[in-house]
Every structure is written in C-alpha cells, then in structure tokens.
Amino acid sequence: MRNKNTKPMTPDVKWKEITPGGMIFDAGNAEDFKTGDWRAMKPIWIIEKCTQCMLCPPTCPDMSIPVKDSKRLDYDYDHCKGCGVCVEVCPFDAITFVKEED
Amino acid sequence: MAYSLKEIMNRPERITGGHRMCAGCGAPVAVRAILRALDPEDHVVCGAATGCLEVSTFLYPYTAWKDSFIHSAFENAGATISGAEAAYAAWKRKGKIDETYKFIAFGGDGGTYDIGLQSLSGAMERGHDMVYVCYDNEAYMNTGIQRSSSTPKYADTTTSPQGTVLPGKQQYKKNLTYVMAAHGIPYVAQTTLTANFKDIHEKAHKAIYTKGPAFMNVFAPCPRGWRYDTPNLMQICKLAMDTCIWPVYEIEEGVWKLNYKPKKKLPVEDYLKTQGRFKHLFHKQNLHLIEELQKDIDNKWEDLLKRCGEA
Questions:
Q1: What DSSP string runs through B239-296?
Q2: Is A27 within 8 Å of chain B by CB?
Q3: Residue A85: its chain B contacts at CB < 8 A?
Q4: Domains observed in chain A
Q5: For the purposes of burial, counting CB atoms within 10 Å of the CB of B18, is it exposed (0-12), middle (13-18) or buried (19 or more)?
Q6: Which residues in chain A have Cβ-Cβ distances shorter than 8 Å to B193?
Q7: pLDDT of chain A along its 102 residues, tens only?
Q8: Min CA distance, B63 vs chain A (Å)?
C-alpha cells in the first residue's frame, strides 16, 4: 500500500506526520497499550485447584487468559482489567479475587 | 468436526487486549467468539457502526484488530462492508486476488435497531456475501445510556428515567431478529454467551460460511448501563435464556429452529432483580408491571415455539 508509514505514533508526533486517513498499518498494536493499571481487584490463579476445564479463557473481555496446547497459562496482568468474570465462572474455586495492591 | 472448546481455544486471537472497552463488557467476549469461528487461514474484513466497540477497539494510533478494520459512521456499517465485499468480488472475478476474505460488520443496538437499519436492510436485500453482527446491549451505552428501540419496557435509562410519573421506558423492545428473518436471507440467528460458547461458535461459523447475507443478534450485557457487578456477566446471559427473555434460535433457509429450551422456565423476576435498571419495578406500587412483563414474555415465547414447531 502507498504512503506506508510504520513509524511509531507517540503523543509528540506532529499532525503533519500522522498517517493519511488515520490509517494504522501495525495490526493488533493495541497490545502495546497496557490497561492493567485500571484494575481495582485482581484475579489470582490457583494452579493446584485448576482442572484445565477451559471455561474461563473464552469469557475474558481482554484476552488476558492465554491458552497454549489446550491449557490455560497465568494471567496477562498487563491487560487484565480485573472485571472478575473468570472468577465467577470457575466451577472449582481455582481463581480468587483480591484487592489490587498499589 | 464436533465442537471442542479445548481445541478451539488454541486458535490465535484475532482481537488483542489493550482495547479500551470497560472491564467486564460483554461485547468483546462476543466479538472474539465470532472471530474464532473463522477458519484460521482465511482473512476477514471487519467494520463497525459507531458505538463502544468501534471507538474503543480502534483509538488512533492503536488497533486491537489483527485483521482489516474499516471505521464507518453510525448509519452505514451495512453499506460499508457490502461495498468492500462487492469490490472483493470484482477483484476475485478478474483474478486480481487469490486469498479468501470474509466480511463482517459489527454494530451495537443503536447502530443496528435504529440508526443503521436502512443500510443493514439494503445490504441484506442486495445479497452480499457478508455477516452483520449486532451486539445487543439494549441502549446507547457509548453516549451515556440513552434508550434505543432495543431497550426493554420499563428499563431505566437517562432518556427514559424512572420516577414518580413514569416507571422507565414505555415501549416494548423491537424484535429485530424477526424483522431480519422477514428479509428471507439464508441465515438469521439469535444467540448469547453460553458457558462453553458452542452456540455462538457454531452459529458464527454457519453465518460466515453460508453463501449470501447472514445476520446474528448477540445479547451482550453492559455492566455500566444495566447496573450490575461486573463478575455476573455469564450469569445474566444464562438467566436471560432461562427466563426466555432472550430465546436462542436460528432460521436457516426459512426453517426455524429453537436451540435452547430451558428445562424449567424461570420467572422474569429472577432476571430483573440482577440489574439496577429494573430496581424500581420491585417497589410496591410497581409490582403489577412485572406481571405485565411476564405476560408479554409468555406470549412471545409461545409465538416462537409455534414458529419453531415446538408447540
């Protein structure tokens, strides 16, 4: 595509340097924006109690429960907003919900 | 191949974290479930009508979408995606493009039930090979919880406030899935988030890989607008199905099929009491309104059972 501008867009980029039409060429770059600091409550995964039933990963609105080889991994706390949906769906009490420390 | 949640969850995500939707929002959960239904080798072009999803997943200079995404205005998500599909079809015909692309438009209930209805109806009527997905959170949440034609009767919103004169919105919710079924398109489905995500996955797969236009109406709770605690997302979806306030069904080539029939139909109170927007209905002077809602739900449920050949 023409006018390809892959330069990082930071707040100090001048308006003349932004991409034409506000296009973004770096797909999925929202990952660079950390929403983890929104958290007031924090889910904690208790590995010993987890049966890998896979009910929690699809309910996460922030894609913060990574899955590898049909097994869930620990939370991506960079993006988890602490909504607690996963805590509520766990049938085995393998996720606790605690206050976020400063 | 039979559905296996464990297998399906291995697919790479097509939408990333770092978007700015509220904590506990139902919409991104619905969107990722739908995108998971795409075959991994296929590309997709998405578009969204103005709404939470559009403005929060694509804040310049960040995009949460790993596939192509087109911004459009409130009223024309259907037109935008149908145009992209027409351009792709022309390129394909001329041999200018080899890969397979699929086309999905997303809209909230404001951009679908109200403002975008004409462009949606047009796109469906013209027969583009696309899917339109409405994530229905029953009000204009992005601008501050104004009532839409999808807001249920007696819900408290900022433009249909409950008080001493009126007990919330005065009109019934529009049944958009019926309206879309009346277009006679190949596939129409109504679904929500279920525990194993089988229903939404299979419907999304059918909608995407059925040739011609398809429409999906997905019930997606909004913790902010409905005033419930964020962890209860999945419980509210389950209650909506069990009280029959949001039946889960599909219409394939004109054949109606009910996908979920609760073993025990729960009273509507069970659903209403989970949300702050219905809190005023439990005041003594408003209790008769709940009976009225129950009667309406029962009638609509009977009608649906008849259409699906279950009654």
A1: HHHHTTSS--EEEETTEEEE----SSPPPHHHHHTT-GGGGGGGSGGGHHHHHHHHHH
A2: yes
A3: 24, 29, 230-231, 233-234
A4: 35-99 (3.30.70.20)
A5: buried
A6: 59
A7: 444 556 677 778 888 888 888 888 888 999 999 999 999 999 999 999 999 999 999 999 999 999 999 999 999 999 999 999 999 999 999 999 999 986
A8: 5
Say which residues have a Cβ less than 8 Å from residue B235's Cβ, sequence separation at least 6. Answer: A88, B274
CATH of the domain at B25: 3.40.50.970
A84 touches B: beta carbon within 8 Å: yes
CA dist., res. B164 & res. A86, Å (int): 39
CB of A81 less than 8 A from some CB of B: yes
Which chain A residues touch B57 with a CB distance below 8 Å? 30
Total-model pTM: 0.94
Query: Which residue does chain A place closest to B20, by CA atoms?
Result: A35
The domain of B233 spans: 5-307
Q: Is A34 on the interface with B (CB under 8 A)?
A: yes
Do B52 and B75 contact (CB within 8 A), yes or no? no
Q: What 3 state SS string does chain A have?
A: CCCCCCCCCCCCCCHHHCCHHHCCCCCCHHHHCCCHHHCCEEEEECHHHCCCCCCCHHHCCCCCCCEECCEECCCCCCCCCCCCHHHHHCCCCCEEEEECCC
Chain A neighbors of B62, CB-CB under 8 A = 24, 29-30, 32-33
ipTM of this predicted structure: 0.91
